[in-house]
């Protein structure tokens, strides 16, 4: 497996390796977006539209991609974003991702819908840990999860605010996907064509989502995604402020794209923002995160770190986000493809690829330190250059 992973020279290579080992329904769950997948595609296109304007004759012999967040060092300006149900694609995948993050000196965000518990991650993959809390209608359950994260020593609580209801993920609807996964007329042929994955799931107990145990079954229907039914659409700024009062650590608010939302979120006590559209899995037709970044940055005005996720597949994408003002990026699918292709070695491979590509971009653009990267490296932003097209 390791040699196969090293034949993957890009995140797209890891994506294709994951696709080859998983039944289509399972791969589509991780790979797909909402409805026509316009926003999913535009997250990538936004990076493709940006062109860099490199500097030359700079000493780039010792590039340093390290930075800081919350006064603590980061080996790279990135973190692993929360991704749900990873264990259905690779058993133990959540722990594998967390260990890979710790090995690379970056934070790992555990999803509420993970297939590992808060305590398992803290015990088996110690590092900079964030707990991503979906706002459940069951407030006793939500309070208990947040308290468990505090006791386990998680650095930050990440509140995802773009999921008042679940998006309509039509790949899942077409595939008849449900959790726990069940054989049916629409997917039995897919599972039969992937015997190694299917036999492993058949002869061992299916993975559980411990943070969601006992809540309503997760099954696709025409109204919303597998995820949205237990979440609270009434959650608002006042509720966010009350949650802030109960959490002693750092508070990260993820899912911000509209500039007019920024002030209220900061007044409620957020310590960092993540410009995110849930990877194109919620509102289809919503703005690409890279296009939304500038407005959020302008309103935040340097008061808190502003990170970005959505569409990051290359180290040069990380570089472009930094040049446009982001303090860092979260990777969801990029590292997920790695773990789905090959467990922890696959997750490590994904991070190695992104790290190598980021460093190469820094050298080719004449910027040996993260602090050297700014908007003047973006074609069309530099007053001496006009980008045609």
UniProtKB/TrEMBL annotation:
GO molecular function: (S)-mandelate dehydrogenase activity; FMN binding; L-lactate dehydrogenase (NAD+) activity
Binding locations of glyoxylate: 132, 134, 169, 278, 281
UniProt cross-references to SMART domains, sorted A to Z: IMPDH
Protein's UniProt keywords contain Oxidoreductase: yes
Co-factor(s): FMN
Limits of the FMN hydroxy acid dehydrogenase domain: 3-383
Presence of the UniProt keyword Repeat in the record: no
Enzyme class, first EC level, given as a word: oxidoreductase
Catalytic activity, EC: 1.1.99.31
CDD domains: alpha_hydroxyacid_oxid_FMN
Family under the similarity heading: Belongs to the FMN-dependent alpha-hydroxy acid dehydrogenase family.
Official protein name in the record: (S)-mandelate dehydrogenase
The organism of origin for this protein: Bordetella pseudohinzii
Lineage: Bacteria, Pseudomonadati, Pseudomonadota, Betaproteobacteria, Burkholderiales
């Amino acid at each position: 497996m390791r040699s196969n992973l090293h034949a993957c020279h890009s995140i797209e290579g890891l994506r294709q390796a994951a696709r080859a080992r998983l039944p289509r329904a399972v791969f589509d769950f991780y790979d797909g977006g909402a409805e026509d997948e316009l926003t999913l595609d535009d997250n990538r296109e936004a990076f493709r539209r940006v062109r860099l304007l490199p500097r030359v004759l700079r000493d780039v012999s010792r590039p340093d991609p390290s930075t800081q967040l919350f006064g603590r060092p980061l080996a790279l300006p990135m973190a692993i974003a929360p991704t749900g149900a990873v264990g259905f694609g690779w058993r133990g995948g959540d722990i594998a991702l967390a260990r890979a993050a710790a090995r690379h000196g970056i934070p790992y965000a555990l999803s509420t819908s993970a297939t590992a518990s808060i305590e398992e991650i803290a015990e088996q993959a110690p590092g900079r840990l964030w707990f991503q809390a979906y706002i459940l209608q069951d407030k006793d359950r939500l309070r208990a999860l947040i308290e468990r994260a505090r006791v386990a020593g998680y650095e930050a609580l990440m509140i995802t605010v773009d999921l008042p209801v679940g998006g309509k993920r039509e790949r899942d609807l077409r595939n008849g996907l449900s959790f726990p996964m069940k054989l049916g007329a629409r997917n039995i042929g897919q599972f039969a064509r992937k015997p190694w994955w299917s036999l492993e799931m058949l002869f061992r107990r299916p993975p559980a989502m411990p943070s969601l145990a006992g809540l309503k079954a997760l099954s696709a229907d025409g109204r919303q995604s597998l995820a949205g039914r237990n979440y609270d659409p009434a959650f608002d700024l006042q509720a966010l402020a009350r949650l802030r009062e109960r959490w002693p650590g750092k508070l990260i608010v993820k899912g911000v794209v509209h500039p007019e939302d920024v002030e209220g979120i900061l007044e409620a006590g957020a310590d960092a923002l993540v410009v995110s559209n849930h990877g194109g899995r919620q509102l289809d037709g919503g703005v690409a995160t890279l296009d939304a970044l500038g407005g959020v940055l302008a309103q935040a005005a340097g008061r808190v770190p502003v990170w970005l996720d959505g569409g990051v597949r290359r180290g040069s994408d990380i570089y472009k986000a930094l040049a446009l003002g982001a303090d860092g990026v979260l990777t969801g699918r990029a590292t997920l493809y790695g773990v789905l292709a090959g467990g922890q070695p696959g997750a490590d491979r994904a991070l190695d690829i992104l790290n190598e590509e980021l460093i190469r971009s820094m050298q080719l653009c004449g910027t040996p330190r993260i602090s050297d990267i700014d908007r003047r490296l973006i074609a069309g932003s530099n007053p001496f250059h006009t980008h045609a097209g």
